[in-house]
Amino acid sequence: MNYWLIVNKAAGDGSHGESYWRGYLQTAGIEELRVRGLNETEWEQEVAPDDRVLVAGGDGSVNRVASVCIERGATLGVLPSGTANDFARNLGLPDDPLELCRLMASQQSLEVDVAWLNGTAFLNVAHIGLGTLPSRQASREQKRHLGRFSYLLTLAQRLGMQRGIHGRIECDDRSVEGPWLTIAIASGAYFGGGHEIPEASIDDGMLNVVAVRHHSWLRVLMAFVATKLLRQTPRSNETVVHFQSPQCHIQLRHGHTVTADGESLGRMANISAFTRRGVLKVMGNRLVSGRPEATPAVHYTPNDASPMARPSPKSF
User: Fold this and answer.
1) Whole-prediction pTM value?
2) N or C, which end of the chain has less CB nearby within 10 Å?
3) Which residues, in sequence order, are CB contacts of 101 under 8 Å at separation 6+?
4) Could you tell me whether strands 240-245 and 190-191 are parallel, antiparallel, or unpaired per DSSP bridges?
5) How far apart (Å, rounded) are the C-alpha atoms in residues 57 and 274?
6) 2.60.200.40, 3.40.50.300, 2.30.30.140, 2.40.480.10: which CATH number matches 120-278?
7) Rounded Cα distance, 147 and 140, in Å
8) pLDDT digits over 111-135, tens only?
């Protein structure tokens, strides 16, 4: 069994690289490390079953290494070094670096879900619409000085400037259609730099589809503030839709940019996502669930006030 350390030197502000983590790992008892850069590729075929592959980077880096671990039967270890670090939040990892490295050395592990969108794996969230802008347009300088709040700054700068995306969202036998500002497909309890989804966890076998209607910038901003800063999920209303399902399909009228764990997947109009339960082994000893809420997970009150309406077929 080998310990690997895969480092993304460009993650976060660049301060949590090989030298930073090596010292803590050695103190924790991990002396032998096979160190590689994330941009290298040879290590992917050298990883053996039962190896421990530690990744120092953000959510995009963790995504890349997780795919290798699934394919090779290895165990993933996360050393959060990026801007959002939502996957680390889902795992409830310690903030103290030495305590975290001792956990990596303990060989405790858990099994978590992995989601796929049009054949591409993701661990945290896939975005369509406005939600893709922070990862694509927040500058490295903003990330260095503002951290995950750079995403909030970029979103605020762009809010009200988007035309919206028209599409139909289908989850199991439920369907809703309209113009959307953003659509998020999340796998765990946290995404987007700290958004919390009540009663969700990364081992529940469910996707959470959260969509925001294209309303006035003030209404959307209020919903965003309630979710992001006050750590509250908006109640059922005409602004926010929330589905829970192991799979979903989204048909857009036109192609739009889609991102998964912060990486662009290009423009798509026909989108299918599903989750597989417990297919990734990760180093850790607990998982985090979102805070419970009083209302069920399926939220939507359409304009006709019916509990859930299926729209009439339309040509996309």
Assistant:
1) 0.77
2) N
3) 21, 24, 25, 27, 28, 30, 79
4) unpaired
5) 25
6) 2.60.200.40
7) 10
8) 999 999 999 999 988 989 876 665 4
